[in-house]
């Protein structure tokens, strides 16, 4: 006999659970469903089965342990209509995806990222200087830091200080991705037939949005790639992901080489699309933490003073001697869920779990935001407490590291995570070591703690806030000035 479907709210004729879909903060709305129905909630949205996972354990069992079944993506009509089919994150599970993933991994695997650290460190040095010179523009400096780092790494392109066309390109691209790919945003995702609506039909706003997005999507994919190819032809290219991928191609026959070139182009653009804003969102949250919880900053600085001292910036190798700084990073990853719902995984065949049937084609959503607020793991979850990861002055291995879920699961786990981890460590430790970040003062001279609010979307950012940034001491200022050569 057939197993029952997992529990969930009652389904209406035709539309199913359309009205149970989140209105704005999907993390909180989905968590409410899990609180009512348990760790697995089954929804049917216009015929699309969905499974909402409410705990890290269940997500790990399905998406990691059964990764061979749960690694497809839903083929959203919106992805094709809007020209984002080159994006590795959106590709269906299969050989084409695997070849892209392999190309990506070749450049961002744990050994390869060691070779990228000096570039990351250079960019961080430059960032500290900009913060010193024009601290009120810190939002722009953060954006520039990650856009510049990833452009350098992916294409060997050095981007300019202000109003850079590449930064604009990635901003527009990510805005389009965020808008178009939020699950449930457009009906067309659930009803592929709608993609044939002519553009002028009422209610076909999505088609106009998609047409606009297509321009953005192709610019993002093609313009930096063409520039880096030009530089290679002229012999002026700096070593980068593009040069490495093109190098690999030389050994292949011509038809294979043509495909490999598409893969190289898509992979570099994917690095650029995936790498700039995710890390940015986390570092914005880190500055928000600094401006909101002064005691965290003081403790971290005391640790850095003892271990690193006034004569140099922190290095990646200092990481193991800086447990408090590491705990601050873990707590940032937990407290601010960069990708609140991760990437939705699609199941490729019927599966059984805990006595339930999970039908083929189900879209499985791991509510990473909810996992980071699971009181069984993290008591008082809205509070920012780095100490929760420490025991006797060392990292406590019994507390789940939020990186175990913040980067997703299984064969689809974030392939940029090693690169992200070094970027985050170098940025956080260098800022803490040299700068003091405080809340702005009001007219009466009282500190105004920023409001703590985050945006909704595929990637979540803190709402814009202000803070005051100054060098910690004169030695820190001198150290920052001495570290401003963009040597690579
Ligand atoms: C704080 C930083 C970051 C976070 C929290 C993050 C998080 C994630 C998550 C949750 C996923 C979905 C995984 C899944 O489906 O289970 C993902 C996928 C992905 N990420 Fe990241 N990411 C970060 C940084 C980066 C960076 C720096 C890059 C590139 C250099 C990158 C490239 C990608 C790519 C290409 C995918 C798609 C993988 C696939 O579908 O096979 N990410 N990331």
TrEMBL record:
Gene3D superfamilies: Cytochrome P450 (1.10.630.10). One of its GO terms (cellular component) is membrane. It is a single-pass membrane protein. Keywords: Heme, Iron, Membrane, Metal-binding, Monooxygenase, Oxidoreductase, Signal, Transmembrane, Transmembrane helix. InterPro entries: Cyt_P450, Cyt_P450_CS, Cyt_P450_E_grp-I, Cyt_P450_sf, Cytochrome_P450_fung. Heme binds at residue 414. Its cofactor is heme. Pathway: Secondary metabolite biosynthesis. It holds the Pfam family p450. GO terms for molecular function: heme binding; iron ion binding; monooxygenase activity; oxidoreductase activity, acting on paired donors, with incorporation or reduction of molecular oxygen. It is found in: Membrane. Its main location: membrane. Belongs to the cytochrome P450 family. This is Cytochrome P450 monooxygenase. The lineage of its organism: Eukaryota, Fungi, Dikarya, Basidiomycota, Agaricomycotina.
